[in-house]
Amino acid sequence: MLQDPQGRKFSYLRLSITDLCNYRCTYCLPDGYKCNSKPDYLSLDEIKMVVASFARHGINKVRITGGEPSLRRDLPEIITAIKNTPGIEKVALTTNAHQLDRKVQQWADCGLDAINISCDSLDGRMMKAIIGRDNLAEMMAGIDIALKSPIKQVKINTVLLKQHNYKQLDQLIDWVKDTPISLRFIELMQTIDNKEYFKANHVSAEEIGKHIESNGWAQILRGKNAGPAKEFCHPEYDGHIGFIAPYSNDFCASCNRLRISSVGKLHLCLFGESGYSLRDLIVKGRETELDQFIANVLQDKPDTHFLHQGFSGGTTDLAMLGG
Ligand code: SAM
């Protein structure tokens, strides 16, 4: 299994398949996606090769992300290919819910195990203010289909923002009373492009944690393949609540994930300076060298990110790598 000099082991790959996004989330791409050059995304065959290499290294969970991954027409084929890779036990997807109601059944039929849907508000006007559009109807219809489908886990990603949806925290929590979803609050992260927005809108995960713990929620243990969230349950609620708290002191100590950008660069940290290109080895089909290169690069993985000190590395926004 892949291991870094700190002894951390890696079982989870986050694979971006495009950096293109059709939404304008105010904390991410407020002016929309800007294409600086002709995109050269990994092809389906290249994705198969890269995932197979990581699977040989003991990666057993892959999350497909973006940009907006559903914008790629071959997403169903990508899900199927990853699902059929020996060693991969779980395929997950993160989406902004664009056309979720029309597409989610097909993804489930391709073998998708888990889906994370981004939803910052249950109020259409607030949603429009935060992400640039109101997609609540297609999202809710899509969540219903997902819950009835073979997809085993449906999670919601919510970024709480002091000047916007923070006042709707209790309304969001009420949602999981009768809905068996996991609602995960992602602490707003500072990127190169959102510094002022971050200052005005950051709410610490600790503050949200205190609020829910004082309302009877109790922390549950992490599963084997769990992501970075701390998860909470409540006897009177069907759903769970989770937190992703990148500013907490112990966040990087439990890091078990690596990232591949849509153009085939291996990123050791979401907030690193740059990635290591695997493209040449992929294009030439050099499997053994690719496996060796990945294992060697892991030795450069830093102990921690430097978000606390206000450094976001080379990360202009999270759409470039998928969060
Ligand atoms: N387009 C897909 C989506 O919207 O879910 C996948 C990519 S998006 C970058 C992944 C997640 O990152 C979304 O839930 C989004 O809300 C979150 N995100 C984006 N920028 C963020 C930031 N600066 N801080 C915290 N979360 C952020």
Describe the structure.
It is a single chain. This protein is an alpha/beta fold. The protein has a single domain, classed as TIM Barrel (Alpha-Beta Barrel), CATH 3.20.20. It is 28% helix and 17% strand. It is built from ten helices and twelve strands. Strand 2, helix 2 and strand 3 form a beta-alpha-beta unit. The longest helix is centred in the first third of the chain and has 13 residues, at 44-56. 41% of the residues are buried. Bound molecules: S-adenosylmethionine. S-adenosylmethionine binds at residues 21, 25, 27-28, 65-66, 68, 94-96, 118, 157, 159, 186, 188-189, 191, 194, 318-319, 322-323.
In short:
This protein is of the alpha/beta class.
Overall pLDDT: 95
| CATH classification, class level | Alpha Beta
How many helices? The count is 10
CA-based gyration radius: 19 Å
CATH topology-level name: TIM Barrel
Bound molecules: S-adenosylmethionine
Strand-pairing-aware structural class = alpha/beta
List the helices and strands and how they pair.
Layout: E1 12-16, H1 44-56, E2 61-65, H2 75-83, E3 90-95, H3 100-109, E4 114-118, H4 124-131, H5 136-148, E5 153-159, H6 169-175, E6 182-186, H7 195-201, H8 205-213, E7 218-220, E8 230-233, E9 240-244, E10 257-260, E11 265-267, E12 276-277, H9 279-283, H10 287-297
Bound molecules: S-adenosylmethionine.
S-adenosylmethionine is lined by residues 21, 25, 27-28, 65-66, 68, 94-96, 118, 157, 159, 186, 188-189, 191, 194, 318-319, 322-323.
